[in-house]
Hints:
The complex is a heterotrimer of chains A (285), B (295) and C (378). Chain A has 285 residues and is mainly alpha-helical. Chain A has two domains: 3-48; 51-280, MetI-like (MetI-like fold, Orthogonal Bundle), CATH 1.10.3720. Helices cover 75% and strands 0% of the residues of chain A. With 295 residues, chain B is mostly helical. In chain B, a hairpin with a 4-residue loop joins strand 1 (56-57) and strand 2. In chain B, helix 3 (66-97) crosses helix 7 (150-173), helix 4 crosses helix 7 (150-173) and helix 8 (178-186) runs antiparallel to helix 9. The radius of gyration of chain B is 24 Å and the shape is globular. Chain C is built from 14 helices and 13 strands. In chain C, the strands form three sheets. An eight-stranded mixed β-sheet of chain C has the order 2-1-3-11-4-8-6-7. In chain C, strands 5-9-10 form a three-stranded mixed β-sheet. The N and C termini of chain C lie far apart (65 Å). Chains in contact: A-B, A-C, B-C. At the A-B interface, helix 1, helix 3, helix 4, helix 5 and helix 6 of A face helix 1, helix 3, helix 4, helix 5 and helix 9 of B.
Amino acid sequence: MMPRDIQGLKRRRAKDRIFSAFIWCLTISCLLVVTIILYYLFKEGISSINWALFSQNPKPVGETGGGILNAIVGSIMVVSIAAVIAIPLGVSVGIYLAENRGRKLTERLAVAVDVLQGIPSIVIGIIIYVWIVKPTGKFSAFSGSIALAIMMLPPIIKNTEETLVLIPRTLKEASLALGASYFKTTMKIVLPGGLGGIFTGCIIGIARIFGEVAPLLFTAFGNPELIFDPRKPVDTIPKVIFTYASSPYNDWHRIAWGGSLILVVFIILLNAVIKIFERKWRVQF
Amino acid sequence: MKNRWLVLENKIFVRWLSFVSILTMILLLIFFITLTVSSWPAIKANGIGFLWGKTWDPVANHFGMLPFLAGTIITSFLSLLISIPFSIAAALFLGEYFPKGAITDIFRNAIEILAAIPTVVYGFWGLYTIAPLVGKFELKMHMPAPGVGILTASIVLSIMLIPYSVSLMRQVISMTPTTLKEAAYALGSTRSEVITRIILPSNISGISAGFLLSLGRALGETMAVTILIGNSPELPRNIFSPAYTMASVIANEFTEAIGDVYLSSLIEIGLMLFIITTIINLLGRLVIKKISYSL
Amino acid sequence: MGELPITFFKFNINTQNRIYMKTTKSKIIAALLVISVGFTSCTGGGDKNNPEDRQLLGAGSTFVYPLYSKMFSEYGKLDSIQTNYQSIGSGGGIKQIMNKTVDFGASDAYLSDDQLSKAPATLVEFPTCVGAVVLSYNLPGNPTLKVTPDIIAGIYLRTITKWNDDKIRAENPDAQLPDEDITVVHRSDGSGTSFIWTDYLSKISSDWQSKVGKGTSVNWPDGELGGKGNEGVAGVIKQTPGAVGYIELAYAIENNMPFAQVKNSAGNYITPSLESASLCANGDIPADTRISITNSNVDQAYPIASFTWIILYKEQKYGDRSKDKVTNLLKELWWMVHDGQQYAKPLTYAPLPPKAVAADEAILKSVTFDGQPVLQNP
């Protein structure tokens, strides 16, 4: 009896080890992929990062050099307008969700937000084209911002809801009992308490839309000139990468690698900011 | 006077909250109506045959979306298939093997970096690294060797899916009741036995919901796939052949579609994409919600 | 600041809170101020130098993108006009001018009668240069191949599928042709280059005409790859051994890509070049400039060449367009067909022949603003 048991135990141990090894292998290969991607990005990107990339507009085909200043400005403009539109709306919906938990309507709203998050970005691009570009007859940075604002909503709403739910009821009740209105209580007690989480949500939203091209293809369009007017078409960094990546010019590939590196580093920095905020501003009681 | 203003302010605030919430809720409905109305000329002209029509011929005004549907579905499923072992392994690694510690921190950050890379950068990177590899393999197999095609797009897409499905899987796996696991360990089970007999089976519905949601994301992925799929509107023969997806045909042809039927056919493809992803997301979320309530 | 929410709940609600609200409020106000100043500074200003009038938007052909980007960049230096030209494909150029989302469209295919009748107002079009389309490929050693119309049609109809096909070998006895499949590449977007290519194929192959036809985007035979834009097709050819595709001559030269000599209708093998392409364009030009010059019967002409057109509305007063803007636009277009032509040759486009320039002048002078001709004495 005994030897067989020990044998069985050994076999089970061996199996367990093989299983662990398997998990390790797969996990390490994930890490490997990340390393390869970053290696390529830095290898190809670093050499094309220079002052001209940040300070010049694109040169016409055939002339070497030039940069993506127009796209950097365009990206910042499109994304900030999107944030200005999305943040008040998203935070409001988040407040509503947090304050009305348990109602049927609220649950449906939460599902709708989840589904909204899953809508392909290109479909949002079509919708904004139909809503804004076609009736006004103009491609514009502004129409791109609206498309991006819709994409930004779900993370803002969710993060706002999740943090506000953590704020103790007693605090709110104390404020209301002192005679403060619901509005004042929300603005002065609830929102400041959850500010860290709301801010995190906004940055997650910005990180989500900063690298998007699909909804901008037929809204923000593109522009080789430096433009500060949101009623005009603009280029964004990811759009430039898309155009340049599929071109046959080596010089354009070089700029596309540089743009990719800038974009990825920027988004990773945003993620780092999110982390810091989550650690420091977590709601704790 | 001040009091009245306070009351009014409060009223406006409450109304505003309900207004934007209802607006958000019916946003999906508005999307659906917008897409349907704009694709109406195509629905009328193409009829129901649009769904299984095999030719996409803008010159003859003959539109069928089967090549795009096939390309989309094959690419998404293939990428899901490739990413499943990796994402389950990574989720178990984070959730069961090393829930805390330096390795976990490194690994979690790595996964977050994967999530931070924009889709167009994935496409560009894939064009430089994966496409030549696949091309070399095809050359060895004596096939036409474009390098770009379904397989290339799926490989890159599977990498893009990993962070998303890992976070979903972790969420699901963490819902396993600790008592169940502890009971199994107390009976002398090894870790692999706990995983294969307790954690995975008890979460099977959550795991499938997770993959369903990942599939929904893969279906709508546009830019990376557009760069890598080969853009050929025909039914794919094998996983190496160039194909076209619903999202990429919209990205490529939307600004240049001349003629009402052509444009609204593209919008009709968008409508189909909207319907498919909405259903998938709805199903996935409902399943996940159900299991998280039942615990 | 970082620890604020926690201390705020534990100790002193009022003071912390008020300070906090004040700082955010003032920050928001400051930000709004900055934004509004920014807006006014870029939208306002006097009427005379309204920046709106100095920003022009065009879209279309990728075929001429290198030339136009150079021309607009140079013209911008002369007259500080910002011209935003997006190479979205000729089909896109036609569509966007029809939708009035751009100031001018650019196309390598002239508008069909059907398109002209569907336009919301009268459209005029005029050629700006001549470009040639070449057959480029990716073969070991990249030899210069000789091809006949038969071979081109065969490759694109997928009746010739191997590089060592007898027909190709017969024309190129010295070339090393591998026993490999031909990967055929075409444009995935609506494109004037495709129009020139399919226009040529339709003229030389009755099979092609009946099965596929000509157009900016057609239903390509099975088993072909698509690339977006001239850049896309050139990119796919460069990265794919055994690939063949049609691209603009300028792109091929710019990227050191090999291209084939084509047998023309006079029976000569012609190397595509500026000179051989411009020979096609020497004939008479109709007043509306809508003419196809592919498969020319001139002795030494390269057969796959075409004009490329700019399209705009004859009556320029529509939407919120000012007369200044229209004048700027027409001055620029006038410059393109005159002084701008000097940039064509260095970028391997053939400049317009004198007859075409004369036709262009007549068309540009016919453009009106509110019924009045804009360019009287340019």
